[in-house]
Amino acid sequence: MEMGLTNVISAGSTMTNAVLGSGKPDSVSTFGSILRLGGSLLIVLGVLLAVVWLLRQWQRIAAKTGPLASLRLIESRSLGSKQALYLVECEGQRMLLGSSPAGLSLLSSIPQTSSSPPTPTPTPNPTANGGPSISTSFADTLIRAITRAT
User: Fold this and answer.
1) Which candidate among 14, 25, 81, 148 keeps its CA 20 to 30 Å from the CA of 137?
2) How many other C-beta atoms lie within 10 A of the C-beta of residue 146?
């Protein structure tokens, strides 16, 4: 009877190993699960980064070949915390734009002569007492200020 009891215990432990796994400790299966989870996470992050990179490349290509390809910012100057000047070229025409908290406005349209910056023409002083000219436009004053600064 002793033999039969040993066989039953042996068979029971074999069935337990078959049900619970191969008899390896739990730490090995936990490590494998963590390793599998980490690898899956790296694959997902890699795919996500690849998609973001492709979208950025696509945006750069679309921006170069898009309908606004004829618009070009030549120069910009900050005049203060919320004011700036922009020299923009659109379809061969140069424009001086002013930006302020109130919005964007066209200050002057500048004919394009060459690659050199435009030279402003001085306006005569109509006042007899030698004071500042009232007829000088704001755009002419800004153009002279930019020319002196460069």
Assistant:
1) 81
2) 17
Residue 100: strand pairing partners: 103
Burial 85-111 (b: 16+ CB within 10 A, else e): bbbbeeeeebebbbbeeeeeeebbebe
Report the amino acid identity of residue 41. Answer: L
Q: Where are the alpha helices (DSSP H) in the chain?
A: 2-20, 26-65, 138-149
Q: For residue range 99-123, what is the model confidence (pLDDT) as tens digits? A: 988 888 998 888 766 555 555 555 5
Rounded distance, CA 28 to CA 7, Å? 29
Structural domain spans, the chain: 2-64, 71-126+133-149
List, for residues 3-17, the tens digit of each pLDDT value.
Answer: 555 555 555 555 555
**What's the pLDDT score for residue 16?**
52
Mark residue 23 as left, alpha or beta (left: phi above 0; alpha: psi -120 to 50; beta: remaining).
left
Taking alpha carbons only, the member of 148, 140, 146 closest to residue 86 is 146
Residue pair 137/68 in contact by the 8 Å Cβ criterion: no
Please answer whether residues 116 and 99 qualify as being in contact, where contact means their C-beta atoms are separated by less than 8 angstroms.
no
